[in-house]
Amino acid sequence: MLAIASEPILSLADTAMIGHLGVEPLAARAIAGALFAGIHWIFSFLAFGTTTLVAHHYGANEPWRCGEMTFHALFLALVSGIAIALCGLFLAPLLFSLMGAEESVRALGISYFRIRILALPFLFLFYAAVGFLRGIQNTRLPMRIAFMVNGLNILLDYLWIYGKAGFPALGLTGAAWASVAAQAIGGILCLKLFFFSSYTERYGLRSQALSPRQLLPLFRIGHEIALRTAALQLALIFATAMASRMSAVLLASHEIAIQLWLLISYTIDGLAVAGQALVAKYLGGHRADRSYDVGKRLILWGLGTGLLFAATYLSLKQPLIALFTKSPEVIDTLRGIFFLLVFFQPLNGIVFVLDGVLIGASDTRFLMWAMLIGSLGIFIPISWLSLQLGWGLTGLWIGFTLFMAWRLATNLLRFSNRRWESAFPGRT
Question: Backbone phi, then psi, for 22, in 5-degree steps?
């Protein structure tokens, strides 16, 4: 869970440091952040899919198959990362135009986006590596790597954004280069672990050969996770685009609110990752009842963690807002939506942990369709109406809350009827 939490901590620190540069750099970071979140989460199947497949073979005591899945996941990560990075370099102006950015925000954002996207191949390699380690039930090592990489990123942010310790003050550009440097080190460390250490000898990674047929299990589970995540990120990006068209102040406020929401969601997602690995392991070992018991315990943990975060946010409302901005307009806007930000978090915890259970069971087709309906049928229409009818940021966040209520209802129904237990065997 701590490894998952380190990413939103990095994002919060990054947002806070950029926020003190002014409203326009924060707005530029908000648009770039929404685009990167879409890319990262769509390709998170490299972690989630690899975890499920490796954990299944680990539970069945098939170490060679674990290595086979991981080798092909690493290949797919490298090729995908290079391809998306090249596309992003050329398409950055178009993407920022589609997001409705003001001209001053657009110029800052394109430069930031083009630098930061260079890190994608290294980040995708890290995703695949994390999937393998979680699959073999090792959560400590990815936690250490994640904290090292994100800690380095925060340090470089401070040095390069503000020009400390003799470095020039690069502002928003410094934040972009900090991400590239830190993620490159993380990706190289993962490659060293797999191909130049004794840790993975049992899994035969250095003896694997590329086979298109062995990519099929990853594509099978990956395309459904990718479509599910794409639907979610499309909705989040669309909401950011609507906020961008409202004003730079509302966009900056929305970015801060999203980062606070992500801190909670990513932290609870750590429970979902544990559930995913355990469910896949037990189903691989033909112990479905153990998987169901794991799910029931995780529901209680998710609810409790969400309650803890909600109470903490409500008690620390003023200092949290002050951490990110000194703008009176942004502060007033955030105060207006703060209750919407926190009040649904306990139930969000249940949503996130059940996502992990269903992904671990390879019930990704159900998750894909539920997410498509919620995103395209609830969140996006309400976001559009919020702009057209003048509902502002409050309308956007009401839409977000209703969308999460849909996800809660569908995930609970699916878990309780236990149809997910039969999804795994025919899919691998």
Answer: 135, 175
